[in-house]
Amino acid sequence: MPENTTSNHWGVIFDLDGTMVNNTPYHRRAWFELCRRYGIPLDHPSYHEKIHARSNDKIVLNLFGADVDKPFIRKIEEEKEGIYRDSFRPVMQETPGLTALLEALTQRGIPCAAASNSPKENVDFILDGMNLRRYFGAVTYRDLVAAGKPDPELFLKAAEGLGVRPERCLVFEDSASGFKAARAAGMRYIAITLGADRHELTEAYDAAAIHENFSHINAETLCETMKQPAVYRLSSPSTCPHGRTSAPC
Question: Helix 176-185 to helix 153-162 angle, to the nearest 10 degrees?
Answer without folding.
Answer: 60
